[in-house]
């Protein structure tokens, strides 16, 4: 798959957003090392995908290409996106992953509205003097 990170916008977080990840093969959740749900951190996001960090290697799940179900909260609503890994980069004790969400128009609009609400709260947050 040919992939370029040229989108209308990409939002990077000062503090990574915590996420839960499930590995899916043929639509079924896969257990890896006796674990079904893995912890991850979202480093940046766009309406179409995320860059995340995890200590788990999601690329060694057999001979099929896995999909990842990523659950996270940007402001107040839980977002569940299903996407494929388009790139991987070793980083510290884990890996960074580029995940592109499958065509999910509702997810795209939810990400945009949650980012807007989150940003408004950050901008209008009272400053401590």
Can you give me a brief rundown of this structure?
This protein is mostly beta strands. The protein contains one helix and seven strands, in the order βββββββα. The protein has a single domain, classed as Thrombin, subunit H (Beta Barrel).
Plain-language structure description:
15% of the residues lie in helices and 49% in strands. With 129 residues, it is mainly beta. It has a single domain (11-123), classed as Beta Barrel (Thrombin, subunit H), CATH 2.40.10.220. The relative contact order is 0.20. The protein has one helix spanning 105-123; strands at residues 11-25, 28-30, 37-46, 49-54, 67-73, 78-91, 94-101. The protein has 1 helix and 7 strands; from the N terminus they run E-E-E-E-E-E-E-H.
Could you outline the blueprint of secondary structure elements for this entry?
Elements: E1 11-25, E2 28-30, E3 37-46, E4 49-54, E5 67-73, E6 78-91, E7 94-101, H1 105-123
Antiparallel strand pairs: 1-2, 1-3, 1-5, 3-4, 4-7, 5-6, 6-7
């Amino acid at each position: 798959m040919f992939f370029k990170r040229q989108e209308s916008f990409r939002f990077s977080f000062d503090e990574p957003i915590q996420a839960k990840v499930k590995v899916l093969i043929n639509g079924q959740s896969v257990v890896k090392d006796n674990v079904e749900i893995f912890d991850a951190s979202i480093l940046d996001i766009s309406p179409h995908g995320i860059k995340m960090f995890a200590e788990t290697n999601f690329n060694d799940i057999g001979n099929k290409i896995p999909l990842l179900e990523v659950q996270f909260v940007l402001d107040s609503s839980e977002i569940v996106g299903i996407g494929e890994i388009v790139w991987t980069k070793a980083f510290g004790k884990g890996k960074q992953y580029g995940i592109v969400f499958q065509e999910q128009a509702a997810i795209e609009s939810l990400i945009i509205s949650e980012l807007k609400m989150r940003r408004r709260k950050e901008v209008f947050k009272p400053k401590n003097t």
